[in-house]
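SAMPLE LOG
Freezer: B-3
Tube label: C17
Construct: single chain, 339 aa
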Amino acid sequence: MSSSPIPGDLPTALRSITYHGLAPGPGLIVLGAVHGNETCGTEAILRLAGELERAERQLLRGTLTLVPITNPLAFQRVQRMGERNLNRNFRITDAPQDFEDRLANRLCPLLAAHDVLLDLHSFHTPGEPFVMLGPENNDHGLEAFQRAPEEEALVRRLGPRRIVEGWLDTYAVGVARRLRNPNATLRAQMLSTDPSYGIGTTEYMRSQGGYGVTLECGQHDDPEAPEVGYRAILNTLGHLGLMELPPPPPRNDLEVLRLVEVVDRDDPLDAFSRPWQSFDRIRAGEEIGVRANGVSVRAPADGFIVFPNPNALPGNEWFYRAEISSRSVDGLKSRELPS
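STRUCTURE (predicted):
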């Protein structure tokens, strides 16, 4: 692995806090601020760490690692990325080319040493918290996985009712389209034409034999978002039996959606037709946005808009489209949604 020096204006260390229970149990790692402007996870993690330090809570079993600021460069700059998106192309690199490569070289072994990952995020536009779920058990395709029942059981007990699946499959389709029509030259953007660029923290965790979920706690500045993250950490600790906490009850009103399409922004002048929020309903034929050349971007079918980003860089994700999923999550299918 390269030992090239780190430029003097970049952070040189990553802080993690680990507690070891004296009884055996699984290892849980909780990440905050993978994206530097998403600080609700940082607040939630530091709140719990303070309680542990003051002995207001005790870890009894297993291992708990807290990483309050996962990307210190992006956090320092108060922006989503440092030199690129840490939550893409997340893997060990023999010849690191940027800050996030060096960071991933430290983070990957840390994740692999645990069994379960809870990654706390927030999103750009207002909306309801939701959980990103991995694939069903499979031995093939982009993401072979054999721990879906455990992941589903956790998802149903985190707190939010809304579940979203289909990330990596949908991202791979977007990669194929980018390869036919790349829009960028910067490395941080050109990486988005590499299928591995869709691999983030949870995908890496699953590749190492564990399981993990991303919890989107709410809009970046929502004062309730840190509480959503904090409660999710406690629910996870209770569900895994690492602390003496009441087992969290499973939600019985799940809304399960599947991502089916990602649409990129091609030009800085591409613009949404209205200020979309995540999970706004869209109808077949409805205009979502207009390209710089005047071409209208319309929904091909009924569904929902997810992660609309009016400030996306050209060549990067502008928005995702989702539809109701037929998947059963921990034995429960999506509730009937009002039309």
